[in-house]
Structure formats: C-alpha cells, structure tokens
Design brief:
five-stranded parallel β-sheet, alpha/beta, 238 residues
Length: 238
C-alpha cells in the first residue's frame, strides 16, 4: 500500500516538474574579462560604452534572464594579473566565474603592446627582432592562460585582437603591416591550440580612421567599440 502511495505521489510530481521546466527562465551568464578596451576607455581620456556593453545589449535580446560579470575588467589589467586571480579560491573568484559563464569575452595585452610601440618605435624599426621577441613571449603567456581557462570551461571564449596605435604613413606602413600580420598569425595559432574564437579587428581599424579619432589617446570611439562588438556578434551568429 505504501509503495502504491509513493508511486502515485511521484507520478503527481511529474506534470509539476514539466511545468516548472517550461516556465523557468534559465539564467544566462556573460563574463567579460579584460583591460581598458573592455572597460570602454575613449579617445578623450574618459570611460563610456565598451564593446562589452554593446554585446550585452545584443545578448539581452536573445536571453531575457541574462547577467553580466565585469568583476575582472581593470584599466591596467595584465596577463599575469589574471594568473594571480586564477589562484584565488572563493565564490567570487575568477575560476568560479569561468566555470559558471555561458559566454566569455577577453581583451588583454593590447595596452602592453601599445606602450611598447609608442615609446620605442624608432628602436624597434631599427631592430624589429626586439618587438617580435616580445610578442612571442606575450603569446606564450596568453597560450598558458587560455589553457587554464579551458580546464575550467568548454564554453565559447571570444578573444579580441589588436589594432595599431601608430598613425599610418608611407614611412611606417610596411613595418606596421608586417608586425600586425605576424600578430594575426600568432592569434590564429592561439585559436587552434586553445579552441578560443579570435576576433580580428586590425583591418577594420586600419580602414576606418573614425575608430581612432585622437592621435594622443589611441583608444576607440563609440563607433570603434560598436565595430568590435559587431565582429563578435558575427562569430556568434555564424
């Protein structure tokens, strides 16, 4: 008799569970990680809408119960800083956030390259091997970092590439194109090795000066940030 009552009880729970699953809104978690580009540093030395914000607006239309985590966006974020964060263990840690994210975007390393190029351009032009060696080291660290990410999550990770902070002219055109073609190759190797999705923005920024309207502060305009988000959205939709 008791068994019969239990069977009836559990059978009664089935339609309630089905209704719960139908009407329950699954939470969709967007984790945005990165430096000044992720934060929205503008060409006029202030902060405004970033590509992460534009992307969130897009995702919000697809997922009504969406959250965005910006705890790991800092204006001076470096690759080594993220390694440090990965070693922390608590409910708000980077490791926990990666495990619980449905989609992850990452922009890191650009500010380091920008500072190197802007402050040492003449040195690197005379001895390009110096900047190429620096890029090799940066991508070695980035490769290690993303492999650690992959241990925590198999979800889509979108990594934003780099644009040139140097103004194009006849004198530096060959140097810049050669350097960023090499960077593009390193990103494609990274994409293959770590199964991330690379967002190439070099040509887009090169062909549109409106994306970098201030020569003194080479951060994107809102138009430039919107372009980055649209490149990510194209990858998502494809």
């Amino acid at each position: 008799m008791k068994k019969k009552i239990l069977v009836i009880f559990f059978l009664a729970l089935i339609p309630l569970y089905v209704i719960y699953k139908i009407y329950r809104k699954e939470e969709y978690n967007y984790l945005a990680i990165g430096d000044e580009l992720a934060k929205g540093h503008t060409p006029f030395n202030e902060y405004n809408t970033s590509y992460t914000d534009y992307l969130y607006d897009y995702l919000e239309k697809k997922h009504s119960n969406i959250t965005i985590n910006k705890n790991y966006i800092e204006e001076d974020m470096r690759i080594n800083d993220l390694f440090t964060e990965l070693n922390k263990i608590d409910k708000n840690s980077l490791s926990y956030s990666i495990k619980n994210a449905d989609i992850i975007t990452l922009s890191i390393g650009s500010e380091e390259i920008f500072n190197k190029l802007k402050s040492n351009y003449e040195i690197y032009k005379e001895n390009p091997k110096l900047i190429y060696n620096y890029i090799d080291d940066l991508f070695t660290n980035l490769n290690h970092l993303l492999k650690e990410f992959r241990k925590l999550s198999k979800k889509n990770i979108y990594i934003v590439g780099y644009y040139s902070p140097l103004e194009y002219n006849e004198e530096n055109q060959i140097f810049i194109d050669s350097l960023f073609n090499y960077i593009d190759m390193k990103f494609k190797e990274l994409e293959k090795n770590t199964k991330v999705i690379y967002i190439d923005i070099y040509q887009g920024f090169k062909n549109n000066p409106n994306y970098l309207p201030n020569k003194n502060h080479t951060f994107p305009s809102l138009e430039g940030y919107n372009y980055i988000s649209n490149q990510i959205i194209k990858k998502i939709e494809s």
